[in-house]
Amino acid sequence: MKAVALKRYLPSSDPESLLDVELPDPAPQGRDLLVRVHAISVNPADVKVRSPKDKTESSPRVLGWDASGVVEATGPDVKLFKRGDAVYYAGSILRPGCDSELHLVDERIVGPKPKSLDDAQAAALPLTALTAYEALFDRCAIDPGGRHSGRTLLVINGAGGVGSIAIQLARLAGLRVIATASRPESQQWCRDMGAHHVINHREDIPQQLKGVDIPEVDYVFNTVDTAGYWNTMCDVIKPFGRMVSIVETSQPLDLGRLMGKSVSFSWELMFTRSRFQTQDMEEQHRALKQVAEWLDAGRLRTTLTEKLSPINAANLRAAHAKVESGKMVGKLVLSGWR
Protein backbone atom coordinates (compact mmCIF):
# COMPACT_ATOMS: atom_id res chain seq x y z
CA MET A 1 0.00 0.00 0.00
CA LYS A 2 1.02 3.63 -0.49
CA ALA A 3 1.81 5.64 2.65
CA VAL A 4 3.59 8.75 3.86
CA ALA A 5 6.06 8.12 6.66
CA LEU A 6 9.16 9.37 8.41
CA LYS A 7 12.48 7.79 9.31
CA ARG A 8 14.08 10.85 10.92
CA TYR A 9 12.55 13.70 12.90
CA LEU A 10 13.24 16.82 10.85
CA PRO A 11 11.81 20.29 10.12
CA SER A 12 8.83 20.22 7.77
CA SER A 13 10.89 22.25 5.27
CA ASP A 14 13.30 19.31 4.87
CA PRO A 15 12.33 17.02 1.93
CA GLU A 16 13.37 14.04 4.09
CA SER A 17 10.96 14.91 6.92
CA LEU A 18 8.07 13.01 5.30
CA LEU A 19 8.56 10.44 2.55
CA ASP A 20 6.40 8.57 0.05
CA VAL A 21 6.78 4.86 0.84
CA GLU A 22 5.29 1.46 -0.02
CA LEU A 23 4.36 -0.74 2.96
CA PRO A 24 2.78 -4.21 3.32
CA ASP A 25 -1.01 -4.27 3.56
CA PRO A 26 -2.01 -4.72 7.24
CA ALA A 27 -4.40 -7.47 8.39
CA PRO A 28 -7.19 -6.86 10.96
CA GLN A 29 -7.22 -8.76 14.24
CA GLY A 30 -9.67 -8.77 17.17
CA ARG A 31 -11.91 -5.70 16.98
CA ASP A 32 -9.85 -4.05 14.23
CA LEU A 33 -11.33 -2.46 11.15
CA LEU A 34 -9.20 -2.33 8.02
CA VAL A 35 -10.16 1.02 6.49
CA ARG A 36 -9.42 2.20 2.96
CA VAL A 37 -8.56 5.82 3.67
CA HIS A 38 -10.07 8.44 1.38
CA ALA A 39 -9.17 11.65 3.24
CA ILE A 40 -7.00 12.71 6.18
CA SER A 41 -6.51 15.84 8.24
CA VAL A 42 -3.45 17.33 9.92
CA ASN A 43 -3.46 18.34 13.59
CA PRO A 44 -0.98 19.86 16.05
CA ALA A 45 -0.49 16.28 17.30
CA ASP A 46 1.06 15.34 13.94
CA VAL A 47 3.39 18.34 14.06
CA LYS A 48 4.41 17.63 17.64
CA VAL A 49 5.27 13.99 16.93
CA ARG A 50 7.19 14.87 13.76
CA SER A 51 9.09 17.79 15.32
CA PRO A 52 12.92 17.61 15.20
CA LYS A 53 14.58 15.31 17.72
CA ASP A 54 17.67 13.16 17.89
CA LYS A 55 16.02 9.89 16.96
CA THR A 56 15.90 7.55 13.97
CA GLU A 57 13.26 4.92 13.17
CA SER A 58 14.46 1.50 12.03
CA SER A 59 11.35 1.18 9.83
CA PRO A 60 9.11 3.91 8.37
CA ARG A 61 6.73 5.45 10.93
CA VAL A 62 3.33 6.54 9.67
CA LEU A 63 1.66 9.50 11.38
CA GLY A 64 -1.88 10.86 11.05
CA TRP A 65 -4.84 10.96 13.44
CA ASP A 66 -7.90 12.02 11.46
CA ALA A 67 -9.41 9.96 8.67
CA SER A 68 -12.49 9.22 6.63
CA GLY A 69 -12.89 6.13 4.50
CA VAL A 70 -14.61 2.80 3.95
CA VAL A 71 -14.26 -0.48 5.84
CA GLU A 72 -12.36 -2.94 3.64
CA ALA A 73 -12.27 -5.87 6.09
CA THR A 74 -12.97 -6.63 9.76
CA GLY A 75 -11.33 -8.58 12.55
CA PRO A 76 -13.09 -11.67 13.95
CA ASP A 77 -14.49 -9.86 17.01
CA VAL A 78 -15.96 -6.79 15.29
CA LYS A 79 -19.55 -6.02 16.31
CA LEU A 80 -20.29 -2.44 15.25
CA PHE A 81 -19.35 -2.28 11.56
CA LYS A 82 -19.24 -4.37 8.41
CA ARG A 83 -17.37 -4.30 5.11
CA GLY A 84 -18.47 -1.35 2.98
CA ASP A 85 -19.45 0.93 5.87
CA ALA A 86 -18.31 4.56 5.56
CA VAL A 87 -16.51 5.67 8.73
CA TYR A 88 -14.58 8.54 10.30
CA TYR A 89 -12.24 8.48 13.30
CA ALA A 90 -9.08 9.82 14.97
CA GLY A 91 -7.37 6.56 15.97
CA SER A 92 -4.74 5.81 18.60
CA ILE A 93 -1.42 7.55 19.21
CA LEU A 94 0.12 4.15 20.07
CA ARG A 95 -0.55 2.60 16.64
CA PRO A 96 0.55 3.49 13.11
CA GLY A 97 -1.33 6.55 11.89
CA CYS A 98 -3.79 6.96 9.04
CA ASP A 99 -1.49 8.58 6.46
CA SER A 100 -1.74 5.38 4.43
CA GLU A 101 -4.07 3.83 1.87
CA LEU A 102 -5.08 1.08 4.31
CA HIS A 103 -5.28 1.58 8.07
CA LEU A 104 -6.09 -0.53 11.13
CA VAL A 105 -8.21 1.00 13.89
CA ASP A 106 -10.17 -0.39 16.84
CA GLU A 107 -13.88 -0.16 16.04
CA ARG A 108 -14.65 1.16 19.53
CA ILE A 109 -13.11 4.54 18.65
CA VAL A 110 -14.70 4.78 15.18
CA GLY A 111 -17.95 6.45 14.17
CA PRO A 112 -20.24 6.14 11.13
CA LYS A 113 -19.35 8.91 8.66
CA PRO A 114 -21.94 11.70 8.54
CA LYS A 115 -24.12 11.00 5.49
CA SER A 116 -24.39 14.67 4.61
CA LEU A 117 -20.62 15.22 4.33
CA ASP A 118 -18.10 14.11 1.76
CA ASP A 119 -14.87 12.43 2.87
CA ALA A 120 -12.85 15.65 3.07
CA GLN A 121 -15.51 17.42 5.13
CA ALA A 122 -15.76 14.43 7.47
CA ALA A 123 -12.00 13.96 7.87
CA ALA A 124 -11.71 17.49 9.27
CA LEU A 125 -13.69 16.57 12.37
CA PRO A 126 -12.92 13.43 14.42
CA LEU A 127 -9.95 14.44 16.61
CA THR A 128 -11.21 17.95 17.26
CA ALA A 129 -14.83 16.88 17.74
CA LEU A 130 -13.86 14.20 20.24
CA THR A 131 -11.57 16.60 22.08
CA ALA A 132 -14.21 19.32 22.33
CA TYR A 133 -16.98 16.83 23.15
CA GLU A 134 -15.02 15.26 26.01
CA ALA A 135 -13.76 18.62 27.30
CA LEU A 136 -17.22 20.19 27.46
CA PHE A 137 -19.54 17.29 28.20
CA ASP A 138 -17.25 15.02 30.26
CA ARG A 139 -14.63 17.24 31.94
CA CYS A 140 -16.88 20.30 32.43
CA ALA A 141 -20.03 18.16 32.90
CA ILE A 142 -22.09 20.42 30.62
CA ASP A 143 -25.40 18.87 29.60
CA PRO A 144 -25.63 18.70 25.78
CA GLY A 145 -29.40 18.56 26.13
CA GLY A 146 -29.60 22.14 27.38
CA ARG A 147 -29.96 21.78 31.15
CA HIS A 148 -27.19 24.38 31.58
CA SER A 149 -28.58 26.71 28.94
CA GLY A 150 -27.65 30.35 29.54
CA ARG A 151 -24.34 29.65 31.29
CA THR A 152 -21.21 31.24 29.87
CA LEU A 153 -18.13 29.70 28.23
CA LEU A 154 -14.86 31.38 27.29
CA VAL A 155 -13.00 29.57 24.49
CA ILE A 156 -9.38 30.73 24.31
CA ASN A 157 -8.34 30.46 20.65
CA GLY A 158 -11.72 29.91 19.10
CA ALA A 159 -10.60 29.82 15.47
CA GLY A 160 -8.43 26.69 15.67
CA GLY A 161 -9.70 23.22 14.89
CA VAL A 162 -10.79 22.39 18.45
CA GLY A 163 -12.10 25.88 19.19
CA SER A 164 -14.18 25.87 15.99
CA ILE A 165 -16.14 22.78 16.97
CA ALA A 166 -16.20 23.68 20.68
CA ILE A 167 -18.06 26.90 19.88
CA GLN A 168 -20.65 24.93 17.93
CA LEU A 169 -21.09 22.24 20.58
CA ALA A 170 -21.47 24.87 23.29
CA ARG A 171 -24.10 26.70 21.28
CA LEU A 172 -25.91 23.41 20.72
CA ALA A 173 -25.99 22.99 24.53
CA GLY A 174 -27.46 26.46 24.94
CA LEU A 175 -24.40 28.22 26.32
CA ARG A 176 -23.48 31.86 25.77
CA VAL A 177 -20.07 31.67 24.06
CA ILE A 178 -17.23 34.17 24.15
CA ALA A 179 -14.34 33.21 21.86
CA THR A 180 -10.92 34.79 21.50
CA ALA A 181 -9.18 35.54 18.19
CA SER A 182 -6.63 38.17 17.20
CA ARG A 183 -6.96 38.63 13.41
CA PRO A 184 -9.99 39.95 11.49
CA GLU A 185 -10.36 36.70 9.51
CA SER A 186 -10.14 34.50 12.62
CA GLN A 187 -12.55 36.75 14.50
CA GLN A 188 -15.08 36.47 11.67
CA TRP A 189 -14.63 32.69 11.62
CA CYS A 190 -15.53 32.52 15.32
CA ARG A 191 -18.66 34.51 14.64
CA ASP A 192 -19.50 32.20 11.74
CA MET A 193 -19.12 29.23 14.10
CA GLY A 194 -21.68 30.81 16.43
CA ALA A 195 -19.76 32.79 19.06
CA HIS A 196 -21.93 35.45 20.68
CA HIS A 197 -18.90 37.64 21.38
CA VAL A 198 -15.33 37.65 20.05
CA ILE A 199 -12.49 39.30 21.98
CA ASN A 200 -8.74 39.56 21.37
CA HIS A 201 -6.51 37.22 23.39
CA ARG A 202 -3.54 39.53 22.77
CA GLU A 203 -5.26 42.25 24.79
CA ASP A 204 -6.68 42.47 28.32
CA ILE A 205 -9.22 39.62 28.46
CA PRO A 206 -10.84 40.51 31.82
CA GLN A 207 -11.35 44.11 30.68
CA GLN A 208 -12.84 42.98 27.36
CA LEU A 209 -15.23 40.62 29.16
CA LYS A 210 -16.44 43.51 31.28
CA GLY A 211 -16.98 45.39 28.03
CA VAL A 212 -19.53 42.78 26.90
CA ASP A 213 -21.11 42.71 30.37
CA ILE A 214 -19.74 39.26 31.25
CA PRO A 215 -17.09 39.92 33.93
CA GLU A 216 -16.98 36.26 34.97
CA VAL A 217 -17.73 33.00 33.14
CA ASP A 218 -18.97 29.59 34.24
CA TYR A 219 -16.50 27.65 32.08
CA VAL A 220 -13.12 28.27 30.44
CA PHE A 221 -11.76 26.07 27.64
CA ASN A 222 -8.08 26.76 26.86
CA THR A 223 -6.97 25.34 23.51
CA VAL A 224 -3.69 27.22 23.04
CA ASP A 225 -1.48 28.03 26.09
CA THR A 226 -2.22 26.79 29.61
CA ALA A 227 0.57 28.54 31.51
CA GLY A 228 0.33 31.74 29.49
CA TYR A 229 -3.35 32.24 30.29
CA TRP A 230 -3.46 30.62 33.74
CA ASN A 231 -3.80 33.81 35.77
CA THR A 232 -6.38 35.18 33.34
CA MET A 233 -8.40 31.98 33.61
CA CYS A 234 -8.30 32.15 37.40
CA ASP A 235 -9.33 35.82 37.32
CA VAL A 236 -12.41 35.39 35.13
CA ILE A 237 -13.81 32.04 36.32
CA LYS A 238 -16.87 32.16 38.57
CA PRO A 239 -17.00 30.48 41.98
CA PHE A 240 -17.68 26.74 41.50
CA GLY A 241 -16.74 27.10 37.83
CA ARG A 242 -14.87 24.57 35.71
CA MET A 243 -11.75 25.05 33.60
CA VAL A 244 -10.27 22.63 31.08
CA SER A 245 -7.15 22.71 28.91
CA ILE A 246 -5.76 20.57 26.12
CA VAL A 247 -2.26 22.08 26.16
CA GLU A 248 0.66 20.85 28.23
CA THR A 249 2.06 23.40 30.62
CA SER A 250 5.61 24.68 30.23
CA GLN A 251 5.82 25.62 33.92
CA PRO A 252 4.13 24.78 37.25
CA LEU A 253 0.56 26.03 37.68
CA ASP A 254 -0.55 27.75 40.87
CA LEU A 255 -3.47 25.49 41.76
CA GLY A 256 -3.86 27.39 45.02
CA ARG A 257 -5.54 30.16 43.02
CA LEU A 258 -8.54 27.86 42.49
CA MET A 259 -9.23 27.05 46.13
CA GLY A 260 -10.96 30.26 47.18
CA LYS A 261 -13.56 29.90 44.44
CA SER A 262 -13.81 26.09 44.73
CA VAL A 263 -12.99 25.86 41.02
CA SER A 264 -12.30 22.57 39.22
CA PHE A 265 -9.50 22.22 36.65
CA SER A 266 -9.18 19.27 34.25
CA TRP A 267 -6.91 18.15 31.46
CA GLU A 268 -8.42 16.72 28.30
CA LEU A 269 -6.51 14.33 26.07
CA MET A 270 -8.51 12.60 23.36
CA PHE A 271 -6.00 9.72 23.22
CA THR A 272 -6.40 8.71 26.89
CA ARG A 273 -9.08 6.08 26.29
CA SER A 274 -7.19 4.27 23.52
CA ARG A 275 -3.80 4.70 25.20
CA PHE A 276 -4.95 2.98 28.40
CA GLN A 277 -7.56 0.69 26.82
CA THR A 278 -10.13 1.95 29.32
CA GLN A 279 -13.32 0.00 29.85
CA ASP A 280 -15.34 2.84 28.35
CA MET A 281 -13.40 3.10 25.06
CA GLU A 282 -16.65 2.66 23.18
CA GLU A 283 -17.75 6.09 24.45
CA GLN A 284 -15.74 7.54 21.57
CA HIS A 285 -17.76 5.50 19.09
CA ARG A 286 -20.94 6.84 20.68
CA ALA A 287 -19.64 10.43 20.69
CA LEU A 288 -18.69 10.30 17.00
CA LYS A 289 -22.05 8.75 16.18
CA GLN A 290 -23.83 11.54 18.06
CA VAL A 291 -21.74 14.21 16.33
CA ALA A 292 -22.58 12.63 12.95
CA GLU A 293 -26.29 12.77 13.79
CA TRP A 294 -26.01 16.45 14.75
CA LEU A 295 -24.15 17.18 11.51
CA ASP A 296 -26.75 15.37 9.42
CA ALA A 297 -29.50 17.28 11.23
CA GLY A 298 -27.82 20.59 10.38
CA ARG A 299 -27.04 21.43 14.01
CA LEU A 300 -23.27 21.38 13.40
CA ARG A 301 -21.12 22.12 10.36
CA THR A 302 -17.74 20.93 9.16
CA THR A 303 -14.71 23.03 10.08
CA LEU A 304 -12.89 22.31 6.81
CA THR A 305 -11.31 25.47 5.38
CA GLU A 306 -8.53 24.22 3.10
CA LYS A 307 -8.02 21.10 0.97
CA LEU A 308 -4.97 19.65 -0.77
CA SER A 309 -4.86 16.76 -3.23
CA PRO A 310 -3.47 14.19 -3.64
CA ILE A 311 -2.28 12.65 -0.38
CA ASN A 312 1.49 12.53 -0.77
CA ALA A 313 4.64 13.53 1.09
CA ALA A 314 5.02 16.93 -0.57
CA ASN A 315 1.47 17.99 0.28
CA LEU A 316 1.74 16.63 3.81
CA ARG A 317 4.95 18.59 4.38
CA ALA A 318 3.13 21.70 3.19
CA ALA A 319 0.21 20.92 5.50
CA HIS A 320 2.53 20.44 8.48
CA ALA A 321 4.17 23.79 7.74
CA LYS A 322 0.75 25.50 7.60
CA VAL A 323 -0.28 24.04 10.97
CA GLU A 324 3.10 25.01 12.45
CA SER A 325 2.59 28.61 11.35
CA GLY A 326 0.00 29.10 14.09
CA LYS A 327 -2.28 30.89 11.63
CA MET A 328 -4.63 28.04 10.73
CA VAL A 329 -8.32 28.89 10.76
CA GLY A 330 -10.45 25.74 10.92
CA LYS A 331 -8.97 22.54 9.48
CA LEU A 332 -6.77 21.50 6.55
CA VAL A 333 -7.56 18.19 4.79
CA LEU A 334 -5.81 16.08 2.15
CA SER A 335 -7.84 13.74 -0.06
CA GLY A 336 -7.22 11.15 -2.77
CA TRP A 337 -4.01 9.18 -3.33
CA ARG A 338 -1.36 10.05 -5.88
TrEMBL record:
Q: Which InterPro entries match?
A: ADH-like_C, ADH-like_N, ADH_Zn_typ-1, ER, GroES-like_sf, NAD(P)-bd_dom_sf, Zinc-ADH_QOR/CCCR
From which domain of life does this come? Bacteria
Q: Which UniProt keywords apply?
A: Metal-binding, NADP, Oxidoreductase, Zinc
* Molecular function via GO: oxidoreductase activity; zinc ion binding
Pfam families documented for this protein? ADH_N, ADH_zinc_N
Pinpoint the Enoyl reductase (ER) domain residues. Answer: 13-334
Q: Family assignment?
A: Belongs to the zinc-containing alcohol dehydrogenase family. Quinone oxidoreductase subfamily.
> Which NCBIfam families did the record assign?
adh_fam_1 (TIGR02817)
| Protein name from the UniProt record | Zinc-type alcohol dehydrogenase-like protein
Organism the protein comes from: Archangium gephyra
